[in-house]
Structures are given as C-alpha cells and as structure tokens.
Design goal:
197 residues, mainly alpha, membrane
C-alpha cells in the first residue's frame, strides 16, 4: 500500500509542479500584457504624441501593446492549473474542512464522514473528467478555434482533461484507501480522521 501511495503522491506532486509552472507563465503573460497595454495607452496620449510623435509611432508599430490573445491563453491555462492542483489536495487531504459537529464524534464515526467526503469527491471528479472529455470531443469534431489566436479550442480542454483525469484517479484512490481504513480500523494514509484540536 505504501508503494501505491508513494506513486500517487509523486504523480500528484508532478501535476502540482506543472500547474505551478503554467500558473507562473500565466502571471508573466498577464503582467507583460498589462504593462504593454499601459505603454500603448501612454504612447497614444497627447503629451507623447506632441513631444515625440515619430518615436511614439515607431514603438507602436514595433508592437508595444497588450499580448494578442492574452485572455484566451489565461482562460485555457487556468483551467489546466485548477485541475493540476487537485490531485495533491486529494492525496494529502489538503481540502478545507469544517468539522464542528464531526470533530466531537468518536473516531469510527469520523472515519465514516471522511469516507463519505472522499467518495463524494471521487464521484464529482470522475463526472467532471467525463464531461471534460465529452466537451473536448465535441470541440474536436466541430473544429472550433479561439477568436484571436485561432488555436483549436479542444487543446484547452485536453490540457484541463489531463489534470482532471489525474484528480479523478487520486480521488478514487483516496476513496478506496478510506474504505480500507474504515474496514480495518487502521490508518493507512496520514490525516485520515482530520486534525485533533
């Protein structure tokens, strides 16, 4: 069981690192685009146009401005990022929980509630992955492209689907782990019954 858990944790961490890299790239794209848009606005201002019209026009012609399709890139990238971080939350029991009533219950009852939570997450993640797959398939068949960059929309769906499938696998795995913990009375993976305050 520990070998499987190490594999699932490694997969979840790899997905989180990939999500972090994409998120960092999206932050850079957003910042550069905002800066470019602000510079473009300044270059069109009356002050710059009257003081140095040729210089301002040369910079505008050079392409100073917002990154073309920045919203499209951020939209597709954020979908991947969200799903890329979910497997790590699943495997490490990192989701926020409110256990005001459950915390006062005996350990076996808490295990039942933890199992119910994991099972609901697993079902939701599998359904989300399935719906993303169907959406990707639909966009692939229709040949739909983004408005500005004209890249196939199914690419964004495929990227998000990668994270969603990893999250679904992690969710099903954790539901199985919590089921075994409930049946055996042993803690197989840390944080099985929440924190004790």
């Amino acid at each position: 069981m520990q070998g499987i858990h190490r594999f699932m944790t490694a997969m979840a961490r790899i997905m989180a690192v990939l999500g972090g890299i994409v998120l960092l790239a999206l932050i850079v794209i957003t910042c550069v685009s905002i800066l470019g848009r602000a510079l473009n606005t300044a270059l069109h201002s009356g002050l710059i146009q009257s003081a140095a019209p040729d210089f301002a026009q040369a910079l505008i012609d050079w392409g100073i401005g917002a990154i073309r399709g920045d919203f499209e890139l951020v939209e597709a990238g954020m979908a991947f990022c969200i799903f890329a971080f979910l497997p790590l939350c699943q495997v490490t029991a990192g989701h926020a929980t409110v256990d005001i009533l459950v915390g006062a219950m005996p350990r076996p009852a808490r295990r039942v509630f933890v199992l119910l939570g994991e099972a609901l997450f697993a079902v939701a993640l599998v359904v989300i992955a399935q719906q993303l797959y169907l959406g990707m398939e639909s966009k692939l068949r229709s040949g739909q492209t983004s408005f500005l960059l004209q890249y196939p929309v199914w690419w964004g769906y495929a990227a998000a689907l990668t994270g969603a499938v990893a999250a679904a696998v992690a969710g099903v795995y954790m539901a199985l782990v919590r089921t075994l913990e409930l049946l055996t009375g042993r803690v197989l993976v840390p944080n099985a019954v929440g924190t004790d305050h």
